[in-house]
C-alpha cells in the first residue's frame, strides 16, 4: 500500500508594524530592560494596531506562505488555525481567514491548545492529509495576546507579543526523499490548568478576562515536559540530537530554550531563536521562527527540523519534520 506524507510546501509569517521595546514597557510598569533581558531574553515585541484582529494577521501570514509555495488560495482545501485569541467567540477565526482568502470549498476550523497550539494543529492537519481526505492544508498559528494582557501586571505583560505564521502542507503519495512530517507527540495534563490561564471566559464570566500565570511553576515544569516529548520523537524515529539540523522551539523564554537544548545535547548553533524580537506569541511563535529561519536560508529542503512547545493546560508537544 502506498503511503501519504504531509510535506511542507511553503512558510510565511506576519508581524504587526508597531514594536514595543523593553524601554517602552519600563515607562508603563516598574520594570527594566536589564530585568526582562536577563530573565527572558526578550528585547522587543510587536503589538497589533487598534482594529487589527487575529484573522488579519493570519491572512497576511497565509498569503506569504502561499506565495512561498507558489500556490493560490484555490489550491487549499483545509485550514487548521491555532489560536487562544480568536476574533470572536464564534465563528472560528479560521472561517474569516478562509473568506478573506476567497476560498469557498473545503473546511476551516480553529484549534485551542494555547502555546502548544501550532504543534497540535500540525499533527491534526497531518492526520487529515494522511487519510486522503484533504489535499493541501494551511496550518496557521495566529495570536493577539496583547488583548488579554493586564498591562498593569509587570509579571506577565512584558512576556508576550502578537503575530502570525503559516505553513502549507501538501499530501504527497510515495514521497521519495523522505520529506514530510515524520512524527508528532501531543500531551496534556489538566491538573496544571490553574498555573497559566485567563481569568474570564464565555461560560464562566461572560467576559474575556486577563492572562494569569504562576511563572515559577511554569518554569519548573517546562524543561522536563519539553525534553520528555522530544525523547518520544527521537525514539519513534531513531533520530537524535546529533542528526537533527534545526531545533525550532516554542519561543517563550530564552532560559527555558537554552536549558532544554543543554539537557538534550542539542548544539547551540542548531537552535533557532526569535524570542528576543517577538516575545512569546503563543501559537504563532513556532511558525514565525520557521519563517525567519527559512527566509534567511538556514532551513533548507531536506533538513531535519525538530519542533517543540509547552503551554497552558498544561499542554506540550513535539514534531519532527523533514523539510
Ligand atoms: C516569569 C519569569 C520570567 C519570572 O522570572 P523569575 O526568575 O521566576 O522571577 P520571580 O517570579 O521569582 O520574581 C523575582 C522578582 O522579580 C520581580 N518581577 C517580576 N516581574 C518583573 C518585571 N517585569 N520587572 C522587574 N521585576 C519583576 C518579582 O516581583 C520578584 O520580586 P520579589 O523577589 O521582590 O518578590 C519566569 O518565571 C518564567 O519565565 N516563567 C515561565 C513563563 C513562561 O514562559 N510562560 C509561558 C509558557 S508558554
TrEMBL record:
Pfam family, one: ACP_syn_III
Keywords (A to Z) from UniProt: Acyltransferase, Cytoplasm, Fatty acid biosynthesis, Fatty acid metabolism, Lipid biosynthesis, Lipid metabolism, Multifunctional enzyme, Transferase
UniProt cross-references to InterPro entries, sorted A to Z: ACP_syn_III_C, ACP_syn_III_N, FabH, Thiolase-like
Record's subcellular location: Cytoplasm
Residues annotated as domain Beta-ketoacyl-[acyl-carrier-protein] synthase III N-terminal: 109-190
Keyword Nucleotide-binding in record: no
Superkingdom field: Bacteria
Active-site feature positions: 115, 250, 280
The protein's Enzyme Commission number: 2.3.1.180
Keyword Lyase: no
Catalytic activity: malonyl-[ACP] + acetyl-CoA + H(+) = 3-oxobutanoyl-[ACP] + CO2 + CoA
EC top class, as a word: transferase
NCBIfam families: fabH (TIGR00747), PRK09352.1 (NF006829)
Subunit structure of this chain's protein: Homodimer.
Family (UniProt): Belongs to the thiolase-like superfamily. FabH family.
Protein name: Beta-ketoacyl-[acyl-carrier-protein] synthase III
Gene this protein is translated from: fabH
